[in-house]
Known about the structure:
single chain; mainly alpha; 4 helices
Amino acid sequence: MQSRSTRLPAPPDRFDGLVLSAPARTGRSERTGGFADACRSENSAAVDQFVSVCFPEPDSDHVKRWGRNVLLRAEPEQAARMVEM
């Protein structure tokens, strides 16, 4: 029997970014508040709090670091606008 070559997925270093978003609403909300405002005024602190809430498990510091690294790549205004979608 002839063995088939298995193609491995491309390494993650080929990606420049990651976008996470909730399902789209019917239209953009112009109201601000809460997390969107925090992204604009204190983006780093807002991301820290968000990541801590998303990953409350013990021994998840490596995942939290990854999350912060990914999320802090966006400009604060871009992050806020995504939240408001």
